[in-house]
Amino acid sequence: MANKPLSAKKLLHYEELIKKELLESLAYVENCNKDQSIGARESSGDLSSYAFHQADQGSDTNLMEQTVMLMEQEREKIKKLYDAMHRISDGVYGICEMCGSNITEARLDIIPYALYCIECMEKQEIKKKKQKR
Predict the structure, then answer these.
(1) How many C-beta atoms surround the C-beta of residue 96 within 10 A?
(2) With CB atoms counted within 10 Å of each terminal CB, which end of the chain scores lower, N or C?
(3) Is pTM, for the whole model, over 0.70?
(4) CA distance 18 to 6
(5) Domains of the chain
(6) Model confidence over 38-85: pLDDT tens digits?
(7) What is the mean pLDDT of residues 107-123?
(8) What gap in Å lies between CA 82 and CA 84, rounded to an integer?
C-alpha cells in the first residue's frame, strides 16, 4: 500500500471525531464519579432509614469495583485520544507506528486513536498470546 498522507479535510474530520469521543468519555467519567460519591454517602449511613444486609453490601462493593474498572478503562481511552490529537499536530496521525504504512480510514473511523494498521495489530495480538503461554 502506498503511503499517502491524510488530506487536511480528513485530518479535520478525525480531529472532530476525537474531540467528540473525548467529550463523551470525560462526561462518562464525571457521571461515574458523581454516582460513586452518591453511593458512598448512602453506604456511609447518611440515609439512616436504609437497613443494609451483608449480601447487599457485597453487591454494592462488586458494583463499585466494576465501575472503578470501567472508569480506569475510560481514562486509558482518554489518554489515547489525547495522544492521537498530538499525532495530528505532529503530522504522524494515521501512520502505523510499527511498519510506517497508512492505517485504513475504516479502522480510524472505528478506533480514531489506533496506533497500528490491522496487519501489525494482528502481529501484536499473536505475540501477546504467545507470551501468555
Answers:
(1) 20
(2) C
(3) yes
(4) 15
(5) 8-44+52-132 (1.20.120.910)
(6) 655 555 555 544 556 666 666 767 777 888 888 899 999 999 999 999
(7) 96
(8) 5
- Shortest CA distance to 21 belongs to which of 79, 66, 71, 68? 79
The residue assigned the cell 472505528 is 110
Which DSSP symbol is given to 116? S
Residues 6+ away with beta carbon under 8 Å from 65: none
Q: How far apart are CA 120 and CA 126, in angstroms?
A: 10
Read out DSSP for 67-108? HHHHHHHHHHHHHHHHHHHHHHHHT-TTB-TTT-PBPPHHHH
**The C-alpha cell that represents 30 in the structure block:** 464525571
Query: Which set of grid coordinates corresponds to residue 8?
Result: 487536511
Please state, in angstroms and rounded to a whole number, the distance separating the CA atoms of residues 123 and 73: 23
- Give the chain's mean pLDDT: 84
Q: What one-letter code names the amino acid at 61?
A: T
For residue 2, what is its C-alpha cell?
502506498
d(CA 66, CA 62): 6
d(C-alpha 20, C-alpha 101), whole Å: 26
